[in-house]
Amino acid sequence: GAGVSQSPSNKVTEKGKDVELRCDPISGHTALYWYRQSLGQGLEFLIYFQGNSAPDKSGLPSDRFSAERTGGSVSTLTIQRTQQEDSAVYLCASSSSRLAGGNEQFFGPGTRLTVL
Amino acid sequence: AQSVAQPEDQVNVAEGNPLTVKCTYSVSGNPYLFWYVQYPNRGLQFLLKYITGDNLVKGSYGFEAEFNKSQTSFHLKKPSALVSDSALYFCAVRGGSYIPTFGRGTSLIVHP
Questions:
Q1: Predicted pLDDT of residue A100
Q2: Cβ of residue B44 closer than 8 Å to a chain A Cβ
């Protein structure tokens, strides 16, 4: 079956521009996560959506970052006025809620963002 | 608060030899523990998890991990390494939160 997909796979932008990154989770998965992975670093949590509940935005590094999830499915991560330090791979993951906290996450291939 | 430590940035092993990638954790209550693998330019792939029950968990590609509550560890193991196992490995823990905490990752290099 289809896994998690992300688009674009690569994005090069100029400093100060806005970018939108898209994530299509696995159908039926109610939980959706965004992470950032910088070169040589681990995963930095950004935001978490669960069903129709208010998202957990505790990981967003600044107010330039925002995300939404429409209809409990597709999610868009928006970065406004991009800075060079935003350059990283942005990963999306989804999971089922059948086992509460015991569900594994399914990751997309990521979007590599380069800010010049 | 929950945390994960992967004390080794890199593990080197010869093909055919056993491998161990270490992970220790800190969490309130019962932990849910996960291992993921990341191949170059790819997203993370789930390997195995511990929720409850048997302390020895078997997963994909011949990997296994042992949950040790007294040592708060969940080390990843494989009896015989393959060159194709070379990748970045992440340990993750969930306690009471639905948001897992990931370790910094361990680069496994298997030499022919």
A1: 63
A2: yes
Q: Is the pLDDT of residue B32 over 90?
A: yes
Q: B41 contacts in A (CB within 8 Å)? A: 109
* Highest mean pLDDT out of A95-99, B6-10, B40-44, B95-99: B6-10
d(CA A100, CA A81): 37
- Contact flag B43-A48 (C-beta cutoff 8 Å): no
Q: Residue B98 — pLDDT band, cuts 50, 70, 90?
A: confident
d(CA B36, CA B45): 5
Residue carrying structure tokens 């170059």: B40
Shortest alpha-carbon distance between residue A111 and chain B (Å): 10
CA B48 from centroid of its chain's CA atoms:
8
Considering only CB atoms, A42 lies closest to which of B95, B98, B102, namely B102
Closest CA to B49 of B104, B91, B106: B91
B90 touches chain A (CB under 8 A): yes
Residues of chain A with pLDDT under 70: 1, 40, 98-101
Cα separation of B13 and B109, whole Å?
A: 6
Contact B5, B71 (CB under 8 A): no
Nearest partner of A17 among A87, A71, A94, judged by Cα: A87
| Nearest residue of chain A to residue B44 (CA atoms) | A107
SS (H, E, C) B50-93: ECCCCCEEECHHHCEEEEECCCCEEEEEECCCCHHHCEEEEEEE
Cβ of B90 and A43 within 8 Å? yes
